[in-house]
Amino acid sequence: MPDPLNPAKGDRSMTQGFVAQYAVEAALGTPGVYDLDTTPLVSLKETLVGEHEGKGVLVYFNDAKENLVNITVFPILYYGNVLPEIAWNIQERVKNDVEKYTGLMVESVNVHVKGVVAREDPAKQK
Question: How does DSSP classify residue 1?
Answer without folding.
Answer: -
